[in-house]
Design a protein that fits this description.
With 579 residues, the chain is mainly alpha-helical. Helices cover 73% and strands 0% of the residues. Helix 15 packs parallel to helix 19. The chain is globular, with a radius of gyration of 24 Å. The two termini are 25 Å apart.
Length: 579
């Protein structure tokens, strides 16, 4: 294991900042969504039509994560960090310039790919820099900054929206992402090299030093400028008798990209891509990345992406107040099941599959995915239903007031993450996780007794929220530590990605199942007592959701004690069985 010096700590700090900023973007869209819908011609009463704006991000975030994690194992975490930041920047630019729903969804998808890729790469970086017995605190700090991003996300969005439009949010994302990319690229090569895990089977390929590809840079600049003029044409240029011909479609009824300026952007980008393949020192080493993707098992990666995409689309596009799945949900899940079965056969036959045989053989490794799924299942109840309860119980509360109530929970979460990272160096991961999830279960049980006026009480309105935030925070680092300590060094990126995927899938499934459970309670109470008003019925629904979340959190605590027993998080490295 390499010595952790000031330069490598600085590299990890930059990676953690990138994770935090991507987390900000995850939550900022909540406030900006109505304005984004209006920009694409979708009315506020047509919320379901805007679902792809959210599900597009989730699709990129979840479905591509295992592939990104596997690439991190093959090339090292630093190249994946920089590539993820580039994807995030491009996605932010496309979203900021979006003029219709399709371009907006494409931008959000790329943001999801980039933002999601930062997490496993950073976790893999921690595993490469720190020995097993010292990973707890840095893992806790990374989890803390990720959750801190969730805290400031809505506040950041509100601040930006007071001075500019929603496009400003994504323009700032692009600028900050680009600055972080440059900072990481300028880091001393020795620091980046020391971050490569000694267990990696292949070292990252180096781009030869020398004069950069000037022609490639020129083509990329032309493509970017032409694309900007296509999606956001200046009025003076658009209305000019001469230059305006650049905006006349070459075919009747053609869209913006079939205008001469749009075709210039397309051709310049295609030539740039060809240049990246043919040049000796390209701006983007397409050939090296192509070889890496091939080594990452392209067929298996595609099957795994399809399996995860089906789950995401089945739940993320559903209206929980109508059904657990979207109307196309059964078809999505059928496709996901077919891809999953095909993946199992592929893994058994492929010489080097995306899911290496035995990578999750240890009980703590696959158990970490189970616990992570349950953590996400319970956590979504807090993120969604605490603000809903606030607006239901307090008639005078608006969206900002409800967000401030949730802030009581979110502020405690990163604090708990740091404490959990510290404790896992001294206690078993299962014990720390169980303590955290037991606290979360107690918090939900307390919240299930809330009534009108509870949020105004210092005891009932603050203590359970702070207890729940601390509980969830405590559980984050131990789960990651147990999985990383129980998997091979050459699979840390993939393992970290699977932990995040499990939590996100748990959140998607949880919001649908818990909301459906709450609605069944609402209908039962309405039938039993027709005199109940809408506000009372709404509070009963949220109370039922909290009860369900308490049961899920308690189950996570119990399973953590069993599944993490003996997890080598305090210095004894797990070794795979012979053969």
């Amino acid at each position: 294991m390499t010595q952790v010096d000031r330069r490598t700590r600085g590299l990890l700090t930059l990676a953690a900042l990138a994770v935090a900023f991507a987390a900000v973007d995850t939550y900022v869209v909540v406030l900006a969504l109505p304005d984004m819908m209006a920009s694409t011609g979708i009315g506020v009463q047509e919320l379901q039509r805007a679902a792809p704006i959210v599900s597009g991000f989730l699709l990129g975030y979840v479905a591509m994560l295992p592939l990104i994690g596997r690439v991190s194992d093959l090339r090292g975490p630093v190249p994946v960090l920089t590539a993820s930041l580039i994807a995030f920047v491009i996605g932010s630019v496309v979203t900021a310039a979006a003029y219709d729903l399709t371009s907006m969804v494409v931008g959000r998808f790329l943001q999801g790919v980039g933002g999601g890729g930062l997490v496993p790469a950073t976790m893999s970086l921690v595993a490469a820099l720190y020995p097993v017995e010292r990973r707890g605190l840095p893992l806790g700090l990374v989890s803390a900054v990720q959750e801190f991003g969730a805290v400031i996300g809505p506040l950041f969005g509100a601040a930006v929206l007071t001075v500019t439009t929603w496009r400003g949010i994504f323009a700032i994302n692009a600028a900050v992402g680009l600055l972080l990319y440059v900072a990481i690229r300028l880091f001393p090569r020795e620091a980046a090299t020391s971050a490569e895990s000694p267990g990696d089977r292949r070292q990252p390929e180096r781009v030869p030093r020398g004069v950069p590809d000037i022609l490639g840079a020129a083509l990329l600049l032309i493509a970017v400028v032409a694309a900007g003029l296509t999606v956001n044409p200046p009025t003076a240029l658009y209305t000019d008798l001469t230059w305006g011909e650049l905006y006349v479609p070459v075919t009747d009824g053609g869209g913006r990209w079939l205008q001469p300026v749009g075709l210039i952007a397309i051709v310049a980008f295609v030539l740039f891509w060809v240049r990246c393949v043919m040049a000796q020192r390209p701006l983007l080493d397409v050939r090296a990345w192509g070889r890496t993707l091939d080594e990452a098992d392209g067929r298996g990666s595609a099957l795994l992406c399809i399996a995860l995409a089906g789950i995401v689309l089945a739940f993320a596009t559903a209206d929980p107040e109508v059904s657990v799945f979207s109307p196309q949900g059964p078809w999505f899940l059928t496709g996901s099941a077919v891809a999953a079965v095909s993946l199992v056969f592929h893994v058994r036959q492929a010489p080097d599959p995306i899911l290496p045989r035995g990578v999750l053989a240890a009980r703590a490794a696959w158990g970490g995915l189970v616990v992570s799924l349950l953590v996400g299942w319970a956590l979504i109840a807090a993120l969604v239903d605490i603000p809903l309860f606030a607006r239901t119980a307090e008639e005078s509360y608006d969206q900002l007031d409800a967000a401030l109530v949730l802030l009581r929970f979110l502020v405690a979460l990163p604090i708990g993450a740091v404490i959990g990272g510290y404790l896992v160096r001294r206690l078993d991961a299962g014990v720390v996780t169980a303590i955290g999830m037991a606290a979360a279960a107690a918090s939900f049980a307390w919240m299930s007794t809330w009534d009108r006026g509870s949020l105004d009480s210092a005891l009932h309105g603050w203590v359970p929220l702070a207890l729940g935030g601390l509980g969830f925070g405590l559980a984050l680092a131990p789960v990651n530590a147990a999985v990383l300590a129980s998997t091979r060094d050459d699979s840390h990126g993939l393992a970290s990605a699977l932990v995040v995927v499990a939590r996100m899938v748990g959140m998607l499934v949880g919001i649908s199942v818990l909301t459906t459970w709450g609605l069944s309670r609402l209908y039962a109470e309405r039938d039993a007592d027709p005199s109940l008003g809408l506000r009372d019925l709404g509070m009963l629904q949220e109370q039922a959701v909290f009860q369900g979340a308490a049961a899920v959190a308690a189950l996570a605590a119990a399973l953590a004690l069993v599944l993490f027993r003996g997890a080598p998080t305090r210095g004894t490295r797990w070794t795979p069985p012979a053969g």
